[in-house]
Amino acid sequence: MRGSDEMYASVPSPVGAAAELSWPKARVVAVRAGRRPLGVERCPLTDALGAALAEPLAATTHVPAFDTSAMDGWAVAGPPPWRLREPADGEGLAGQPVAEALDDGEACRIATGAPVPAGATAVLRREDGAAEPAAPQAGTGAGTKPGTKAGAKPVTTTTLRLRPGVTAPPLGRDIRPRGQECRAGEALLAAGTLVTPAVLGLAAAIGHDELTVHRRPTVELLVLGDELLTEGPSRDGRIRDALGPMLPGWLASYGARLTGLRRVGDDRDALVAALRSSRADVVVTTGATAAGPRDFLHPALVEIGATLLVDGVLVRPGHPMLLAELPTAELPETAGEKRRYLVGLPGNPFAAAVAAATLAEPLLRGLGGCPQAEPYRVRAAAALAGHPGHTRLVPVTLPERGAVPLRHDGPAMLRGLALAEGLAVVPPGGVAEGEPVEVLDVPCG
Ligand SMILES: Nc1nc2c(c(=O)[nH]1)N[C@H]1C(S)=C(S)[C@@H](COP(=O)(O)OP(=O)(O)OC[C@H]3O[C@@H](n4cnc5c(N)ncnc54)[C@H](O)[C@@H]3O)O[C@H]1N2
Ligand code: MOO
């Protein structure tokens, strides 16, 4: 059984490949490993969600594409009152071709989103005007000018007036002019921008059916451990797998495309076979990072000829985390550029989260062509205790007064993390109340 100082335990590197790195250095190694994006592809809009744009996103059309009514009411030309034109079929409705031009002193009905006819100087909102049919005139039908020929431009003597107390709309009122938001050819988003649902909406609005994006790194998640249950409460010495449900969302938020989740028992040969058979750009494993009797990750990596880039990090929790470059000989020639990695996350769930934020995030962002997350600093609302020689990652909430540490932040706990808005990066020695501290985002999508 581990004592209360389990967070500060130290494990020598089991294969002695590399000394444990400081937390900032480990991040730099992960950023460097991912510094060249994997490739570029063109795909339909819906497949682009979560990828990064590989080229600036330019408008294919002006937006709006035509002068558009912003309100339901009437398009009017010149000062009031106006002669109200009888609408032709569908005239003035959204989705209809633009209505015939207005002469000065004329008005026609118009709906929100409908094209504004030439000659219109403003849109008068429905609630601001009143149409008054003229008195019937002998032999002509109600309100129709004498002498109107069948098939000629419909002319009416119905008058549109402002309601009492309403002033005449100034020039351009409630008309969204063509090109107000952007002009055809204008670049609206820079290469590297993450394709979010809003970006998909914008891309469609500016006329795109497909996007050119960086290929998202494929990730296979290997959840290791005989003791793990996939349903019900922990029992009989076995515990419920918390990382299978948690990590896919985290990895997706880093830009990964999860291609599979495999469960592998505490068996070295099975792990070697799983690593050899995976075709993912990045394999993420959970557990088996330490030097326990059934922790087979290091020996398996040695057996398949992997190169350890990070083998332990001076951070609490999560220090046995590792990053390795995998051999690529078994990939088909068609696989494109051959580069594969493995991120080994410790089995303790909060330790695994810290390791994901430390190594998986920068690696996956880089491989997927996403810019690295900008570090940001927040004042510590309370003192953040530090380890004498290692960095600590502490779950925090971020109210206006600053970063507030959460309880239940032990390596095996998720209670603090589930409430966290960020992970404070507490350097060795700690952070005094009121001092700035770097904060990493906690994925919430
Ligand atoms: N003698 C020492 N033992 C350990 C040390 C040490 O310094 N000396 N370090 C401890 C630290 S720190 C960590 S972190 C863990 C790392 O362990 P492993 O990565 O080898 O993971 P396991 O041994 O497989 O599991 C550890 C722990 O986590 C539970 N676990 C595993 N997978 C899951 C999962 N998917 N969901 C929920 N919980 C999981 C597992 O049952 C164990 O309780 O090593 C310490 N040991
Ligand atoms: O303290 Mo361990 O590194 O649980 O992560």
Automatic annotation (TrEMBL):
Documented EC number(s): 2.10.1.1
Pathway assigned in UniProt: Cofactor biosynthesis; molybdopterin biosynthesis
UniProt keywords, alphabetically: Magnesium, Metal-binding, Molybdenum, Molybdenum cofactor biosynthesis, Transferase
UniProt GO BP: Mo-molybdopterin cofactor biosynthetic process
Organism superkingdom: Bacteria
Function: Catalyzes the insertion of molybdate into adenylated molybdopterin with the concomitant release of AMP.
Protein name according to UniProt: Molybdopterin molybdenumtransferase
